[in-house]
Design brief:
This protein has 190 residues and is α+β, with helices and mostly antiparallel strands. It has helices at residues 2-21, 37-46, 72-80, 149-177; strands spanning 86-90, 95-98, 109-116, 126-135, 141-146, 180-181, 188-189. The radius of gyration is 25 Å and the shape is elongated.
């Protein structure tokens, strides 16, 4: 009798350990979460978390996949770097590299590399690297990495555009989802 009790208990504990290490539980600091239940519900609904009983049973076409067209940081970077010819654009690798470009009258050219470190819109999410190529009359070229305010200006422009795109996406999603009613409340929320 004791063997039958120990076996399910061990299997249950093992499953809990395995599922927990798979990332089902995500740590979130208390300061980032509202203490009022109504505010938590509103925040979760705005972020698209949770579920609605009216949407149960509807086929949503599988999992939730992130494509380049749904990532505001990626869209903003493509938009802001559209002034230069692009030589390598790899969403899966998280990198955008322009081709060498410059003024036609100058032999100096630059190349901009944008590396995405995360999909979140924050200052450490992207890294902008600028290389400058200086060629002499004999086409001997020297390439140097430059660090100046242009790096931060490009980064700021991309982050600003990404924030605007994300805000527009959230508005569109809010309109698509419609209003919802908080349990125990008589008012509908958007």
């Amino acid at each position: 009798m004791l063997k039958f009790i120990k076996s399910p208990l061990i299997i249950s504990l093992f499953c809990i350990f395995v599922l927990n290490s798979c990332g089902i539980y995500k740590y979130s600091p208390a300061k980032d979460n509202p203490t009022n239940a109504d505010e938590r519900i509103k925040k979760n609904m705005e972020e698209g978390k949770g579920f609605r009983l009216s949407e149960m049973g509807k086929n949503k076409g599988g999992g939730n996949f992130q494509f380049a067209s749904s990532n505001p940081m990626w869209r903003a970077a493509i938009d802001k770097l559209s002034f230069a010819p692009l030589s390598n654009v790899d969403y899966a690798g998280g990198i955008i590299v322009t081709d060498w470009f410059g003024e036609s009258s100058s032999k100096d050219q630059i190349k901009i590399t944008t590396r995405f470190l995360t999909n979140e819109i924050r200052s450490d999410a992207i890294d902008i690297i600028i290389h400058k190529k200086i060629c002499d009359q004999a086409n001997n070229c020297q390439i140097n990495k430059i660090e100046n305010n242009l790096n931060s200006e490009i980064k700021f422009a991309i982050l600003k555009k990404a924030a605007l795109l994300e805000k527009d996406d959230m508005k569109r999603e809010k309109v698509k989802r419609g209003t919802y009613k908080i349990p125990g409340s008589n008012e509908g929320r958007e």
